[in-house]
Description:
- Keywords: Membrane, Transmembrane, Transmembrane helix.
- This is Ferrous iron transport protein B.
- One of its GO terms (cellular component) is plasma membrane.
- It comes from Novosphingobium barchaimii LL02.
- By secondary structure, this protein is α/β, with parallel strands linked by helices.
- It has a domain of 199 residues: P-loop containing nucleotide triphosphate hydrolases (Rossmann fold), CATH 3.40.50.
- It has a six-stranded mixed beta sheet with strand order 2-3-1-4-5-7, with helices on both faces. Strands 6-8 form a two-stranded antiparallel ribbon.
- Helix 9 packs antiparallel against helix 12, helix 10 packs antiparallel against helix 11 and helix 17 runs antiparallel to helix 26.
- The N and C termini lie far apart (77 Å).
- The model has no long low-confidence stretch (mean pLDDT 90).
- Bound molecules: guanosine-5'-triphosphate and magnesium ion.
- Guanosine-5'-triphosphate (GTP) binds next to helix 1 and helix 4.
Amino acid sequence: MSRQRKVALVGNPNAGKSALFNALTGARQKIANYPGVTVERKSGRFVLPTGEPVEMTDLPGAYGLDPTSPDEEVTSKVIRGAFEGEAVPDVLVIVLDASNLEQHLVFAQEVLALGKPSVIALNMVDLAERDGLVLDAAVLAEELGVPVISTVAVRRRGLAELGEAIANAGQRHAGPGLTDIGPTERRVAAHAMAGAAILSESRQYRLHASLDRLLLNPWLGPLILLGILFVVFQAVFAWATPFADALEASVGWLHDTVKATLPESLLRDLLTDGVISGVGSVIVFLPQIVILFAFILAMEASGYMARAAFLMDRMMAGVGLSGRSFIPLLSSFACAIPGIMATRSITDPKDRLTTILIAPMMTCSARLPVYAVIIAAFIPNTNVGAGVGLQGLVLLVLYLAGVLGAMAVALLMRSSMTKGAASGFIMEMPKYQMPRLKDMAIGLWQRAWIFLRRAGTIIFMVTVVLWLMLNFPKAGPGESQVDASIAGKIASGLAVVVEPIGFNRDMALALIPAMAAREVAVSSLATTYAVDAGDNEDEQAAELGDQLKARWTLPMALAFLAWFVFAPQCMSTIAVTRRETNGWKWPTFMLVYLFVLAYISAGVTYWIAVAAGL
Ligand SMILES: Nc1nc2c(ncn2[C@@H]2O[C@H](COP(=O)(O)OP(=O)(O)OP(=O)(O)O)[C@@H](O)[C@H]2O)c(=O)[nH]1
Ligand SMILES: [Mg+2]
């Protein structure tokens, strides 16, 4: 039996390769409206209309076959058959953005020159039409000597025809010589071909052009960006409340019901005080996570995110980074792991290293529960101006503190360890699009699922272990269970170290399991106070926020927040940094400098707050 044929999707960044890959294979690769989303190859199965199954590979976007960054290198190697352990593709599907034809044709010619059986997917014809372009695919097919199929990946248009063409793909039929021409000739040819294929062009760009003039204005642009962020953080608190309250009530009900139904035993206490109190205390933040990501996904899909990157470029250049670092840093607001992986699209190695090292300072979604629980307990829910909630404002300040800290560190590094000039900004602006509801729903569902899975696995496990360590050995009469326990003893040791920055024993206790994942800080506090409450019914009924208010002062709470802005409390981030930098040197450095920063900022916050009489 002959081996399964391989088909690879290639093209410029943001052409819609992953969207096409998803449509053809049913996969759920991340797609977003800016270049550099895919940084690793990914394969799936696709059955051609002839019934033949083929292996389809989605590749990172590239501008040329001479790679300038690690992700482009993957693409170049795979299509040349130089990727270790991977067979050379039999058919190439070259994906073009129809509304950006001339530019995309340059790379297409370079790929065609390889002489492999190829098919062109003229994608995004809907956007081209919207912009008033009428294209003739037949002219392009004639000029390039390969089949050209018009597609709209996100509406599954043209997929059958594309499958047909892949099944029949053969050598190029006649067409101009492509092999021995250089980049300049390719550009000239691309201009001529695009000119011939575009039948008519009415300038309907006006609205988008004026939108860009407004959003990219050097003065108004950053203000608008800040305004949008402001609304986002207000919404995270304001809109989530009813949902969070309902969730909290359900968790409380479950806790009480289990406690009332099961006979008194260690197992019952493990279930109620450990699992339900601990994991439940994290799950109640699901609505806030979903709201935050709804905004992020909408900004990504609409094309605004790329504009924000452009705006940030000046600031990034100021600290010695390029705008290319923006997308990785932005992904780090979800989680530093995909963020650090996204740095593969950064050309300059020192630029890339700096970006990796500061990525953990972007506020990942695991910090949101920690911030939210402390803010809800200690920051009054008042307005500091018309419609400006204080809680949302504090949250925004915490996010900004991370960003500013990162910028300061980048500046320091770029003028010492990773010295070098900032490279220029070369990202192209994607077109504005209305976010599609279905994509948003899938994206939100994926984020929610990641969050719930963490709650069900790592947070669950760490909570159970902590509960056991809190319950043994058993306290003698008159002694508090937490004081007597193993966990309490360990925490008392650590408390000596963190006392100077205002932390008490319980806070120290929360920091250790939170090394596994930051949200665990919340579940640890909930479990600790549930165990501490023992059989005292009033204390048991008290919600975590009330427990915190009763036991912590405001300066302590603020110091705890400041700690979490910087502390590198996430094993997976350290692991991925080791992988991406090929060694232990940089992850160790990252751990040390972030802990030092966290310690100093918590201490400074605490002592200033105390001095201010808070
Ligand atoms: N209107 C329209 N939008 C599309 C089409 N195909 C893709 N998109 C959108 O274009 C954007 C980019 O799509 P991706 O599939 O992420 O592009 P890519 O080529 O994989 O990009 P990289 O991974 O960065 O190289 C996304 O916002 C998609 O929703 C299309 O045919 N029509
Ligand atoms: Mg992609």
